[in-house]
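Two proteins follow. First one:
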Amino acid sequence: MNQTLALKQLKLLDKYGKRMRLAAEKWVNEFQTLISIILSARTRDETTIKVAKELFKKYPTAKKLSKANIKEIEKIIKPVNFYKNKSKNILNCSKILIKEYNSEIPESIDELIKLSGVGRKTANVFLAEKGKNAIGVDTHLNYVSRKLGWSNHVDPHKIEIDLEKLFHKNYWRKINPIAVRFGKTYTSRKEKDKILEEIKCNP
């Protein structure tokens, strides 16, 4: 796979995805962006956005969420998958941000993954949303990368490394949203595979 072909495939993939708001987008501050990404794991973006809006009406900042009652958080975010575990994570994340980072979100992946509920994918999606050169490899991008021949790996970190080598860094932050929008637009695997095959075979 060469860089020119991969970029052409990425641009074709972008054309197939519907324009829609993703869970990481359009929040009023970085704290809300990070918390929304944590909540979005294994949960539809539409559900995450709705739940996050309710959560941020009451707890718009790390300081306010850090003082929340865990049961109240659970009640608000119950529609998201794994809500009990996520309630603990976002509460602890808020407390760590207050105690160790003066409410500021760290900007390095090594620091971000020290926060409760933040893994490498979440950290990279957050950094990309901030305009940094980062690739968050979720299930959508994992699938697309292997189908289009961008990577032969299953491990997200190894796929991330392959994509960093394949694409110029100016495109890194765009790759995940493009793959996610494509994956959300075509929920049928048969239809998805048909389009990906067409993209792959396009000269």
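Second one, unrelated to the first:
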Amino acid sequence: MNFQKLLVPVASLVLLYAAWRAYGWPGVAIAGGGLVMWLLLHFTRMMTILKRAADRPVGFVGSAVMLNAKLKPGVTLMHVIAMTRALGELRSPKGEQPEIYRWTDGSQSHVTCEFQQGKLARWTLERPPTGDEAPPPAP
């Protein structure tokens, strides 16, 4: 079971209970207001990220090489969408784990990211072969 999903609600209830024990109903009102403000900040951030991503083509990134350099294991899908400012092209069956997304740049280089439970597990950068990298012709 994922304990991170339980941590925020339990911590919120503990905060509300402590506020009630210390200050009564005014303490609950202040703590509840703080929790609502925190939720609104996260909701606003998510909507801003998705609004920016809606204006770009799906699976497009300015530079796949730069995206590859910025990625770190454990970041969330929302964080990667914020970095690329575009939704990734879904490459795995919908609703199955792991989720695989791809972002491609103008030179047809692409980064394929594998997310396990919403967190980045691994990624690969693939670049198309150029004329310099092609094997020399046989004599």
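SUMMARY FIELD: The CA atoms of residues 29 and 104 lie 48 Å apart. The longest strand covers residues 119-126.
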